[in-house]
Q: What sequence folds into this?
């Protein structure tokens, strides 16, 4: 029985770095451990699939990896079965999830990742759809998926690009923390606020916070706490 092998990035871009550059070591550790040479990219979170795939290809080709776009495959199911690794890119989470439903890709992806151990990389929207649901995305609902329930590769929610409220701000409207707390109050499900440059590495029943910044955990009981880099997040993988 294979085990989940995931890298869930808050974002593909970080100030002061080129596209995906900040996560190069994390990506290469994942790919080299599974002898990955070619990455199957899912570009459905942005409108121009060819351009998006080329962006990712140009970023990681110098590292020695090829990139193929899932949208170019006549038989997407077979492409997933043949894939050495899957990278689901960021963009609009609602558009991405709607497309995954329309193309009937959720179950094939779950099978490859959870049963066959195919490495999965998500960034932003790609991280959102890897979790239990997309309720905690920051995106505008420009599309209408048939459900907010997502791939469920991990049994909790993530808020990518998490940014706490500036205490010196004069803004008095609803804050990010208040919106996440509202979700927790209704669903009693923990949410991990991933700041830019951070990610979650999942290897079987072990999960670790990567990067050089804290993450903020909104607990299912309504509390919250800061978690330092390299924190053990394995407790979040329990479905109890």
A:
């Amino acid at each position: 029985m294979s085990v989940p092998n995931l890298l869930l990035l808050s974002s593909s871009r970080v100030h002061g770095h080129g596209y995906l550059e900040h996560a190069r070591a994390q990506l290469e550790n994942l790919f080299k451990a599974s002898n990955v040479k070619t990455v199957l990219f899912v570009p459905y979170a942005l409108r121009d699939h060819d351009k998006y795939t080329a962006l990712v290809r140009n970023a990681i080709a110098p590292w020695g990896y090829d990139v193929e776009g899932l949208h170019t495959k006549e038989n997407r199911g077979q492409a997933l079965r043949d894939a050495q690794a899957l990278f689901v890119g960021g963009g609009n989470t609602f558009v991405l999830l709607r497309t995954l439903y329309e193309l009937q890709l959720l179950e094939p992806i779950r099978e490859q990742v959870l049963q066959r151990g195919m490495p999965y990389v998500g960034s932003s929207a790609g991280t959102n759809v890897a979790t239990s649901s997309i309720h905690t995305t920051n995106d505008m609902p420009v599309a209408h998926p048939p459900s907010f329930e997502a791939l469920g590769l991990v049994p909790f929610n993530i808020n990518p690009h998490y940014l706490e409220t500036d205490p010196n701000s004069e803004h008095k409207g609803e804050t990010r923390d208040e919106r996440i707390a509202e979700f927790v109050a209704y669903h009693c499900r923990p949410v991990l606020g991933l700041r830019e440059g951070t990610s979650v590495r999942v290897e079987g029943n072990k999960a670790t916070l990567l990067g050089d910044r804290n993450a903020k955990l909104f607990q299912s009981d309504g509390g919250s706490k800061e978690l330092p880099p390299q924190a053990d997040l394995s407790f979040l993988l329990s479905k109890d």
In short: The domain at 5-237 is CATH 3.40.50.880 (Rossmann fold). The CA atoms of residues 73 and 220 lie 41 Å apart. The mean pLDDT is 96. The chain has one domain: 5-237.
